[in-house]
Amino acid sequence: MHQQMASQPSFDSAKVAAIKDAIANGSYTVDAEKLADNMMKFEDELGGLR
Predict the structure, then answer these.
(1) What CA–CA distance (Å, rounded) separates 19 from 29?
(2) Residue 30 half-sphere exposure, CB side, CA atoms within 13 Å?
(3) Tell me, what's the pLDDT at 50?
(4) Could you read off the pLDDT of 23-50 as tens digits, one per residue?
């Protein structure tokens, strides 16, 4: 499984290109509530590392 993961690209270059295009043309939107929820989850996870 490790070898399989190692042979895969670490990111989806087509998705990155699509996001870059959306940002450049002003059509990229962010769901502020989803972003805030994910930030809170991340903060909770970091708190468990201490």
Answers:
(1) 10
(2) 7
(3) 60
(4) 999 999 999 999 999 999 999 999 877 6
First to last CA, the chain: 30
Q: Contact 19/28 with Cβ under 8 angstroms?
A: yes
**Residue found by looking up tokens 């769901």 in the block:** 31
Helices (H), the chain: 2-7, 13-25, 32-47
What pLDDT does 17 receive?
97
What are the residue ranges spanned by the domains of the chain? 13-48
How far is residue 16's CA from residue 22's CA, in Å, rounded to a whole number?
Answer: 10
24 vs 9, 14, 21, 29, 34, CA distance in Å?
Answer: 24, 15, 5, 12, 22
